[in-house]
Amino acid sequence: MSQHDNLQRFLFDGAPVRGALVRMDGAWQQVLARHDYPPAIRQVLGQMLAASALLAANLKFDGTLIMQLHGKGALRLAVAECTNERTVRATARYDAHIHDAPLAELLGEGGTCVLTLEPKDGEPWQGIVALEGDSIAAMIQHYLQRSEQLDSRLILACNDDTAAGLLLQRLPDGHGDPDAWQHLTVLADTLRPDELLGLDAHDILHRLYHEEQVRVFEPEEVSFACNCSEQRVGDMLKLLGGQEVAEVVLEQGSIEVGCEYCGQRYVFDEDEVNALFGMDVIEAVRGEQPRH
């Protein structure tokens, strides 16, 4: 296991509070290696990636947690995903002139955040997150309080090397001192970004809670992985329809689709497109085109 690509869950023995820490070096570098993101996008995606990993730590099913920001400003779309297997990926679409600005300004008016729980078996569930607060952390805290009546404290940080975060949550039916929540969150708020990014989980927990009884679970490895495949791209082309796909192939000789997450390129030539649609769709569309 990489020392600095893991998620560490923990529980306070003397208070109804659970927590998790995540630090991603290699996984975050894998995301950045595939796109030359400007600083404003790196900050948003790094924090979203850490937040998605922390929220996915409590998933009770096999599947994926997907966090999406949709905007009409310079930031059009930002997506971060984490699976129950602790694999992560992220991508963004944005205007070329984007610059550092508060999140609300980057998204523009009408920006939204959507959290999707996508089980491998069963129907997905979506929740709309109000753009409250001036940060991704504040936005998610408001959402957890309103949707799940769950008091939470989320602290996120990222730089060009590391994406990291700390999540505390008050358990509704807990044990120990019910009034310890404020004390534990006040301590969490003393954690500096450089400490969150530079220290491992053991050192952070000692720095914050050395006077508390903290039960620490086995760390879980976090890694970059993309689930794109030729079959998934083929399914997407089927949704576009044979007519549209065939027209592109006739114009360009093939159709090429790139994965926005990992950069993998998938190319389908005439024979492959015909096989995809189970018919000679290329010849059918060629016969429909006007002769000059």
Automatic annotation (TrEMBL):
It is found in: Cytoplasm. PANTHER family: 33 KDA CHAPERONIN. It comes from Vogesella facilis. Keywords: Chaperone, Cytoplasm, Disulfide bond, Redox-active center, Zinc. Pfam families: HSP33. Under oxidizing conditions two disulfide bonds are formed involving the reactive cysteines. Under reducing conditions zinc is bound to the reactive cysteines and the protein is inactive. This is 33 kDa chaperonin. InterPro entries: Heat_shock_Hsp33, Heat_shock_Hsp33_C, Heat_shock_Hsp33_N, Hsp33_helix_hairpin_bin_dom_sf. Redox regulated molecular chaperone. Protects both thermally unfolding and oxidatively damaged proteins from irreversible aggregation. Plays an important role in the bacterial defense system toward oxidative stress. Belongs to the HSP33 family. The keyword Zinc applies. Disulfide bonds join C226-C228, C259-C262. It comes from the Bacteria.
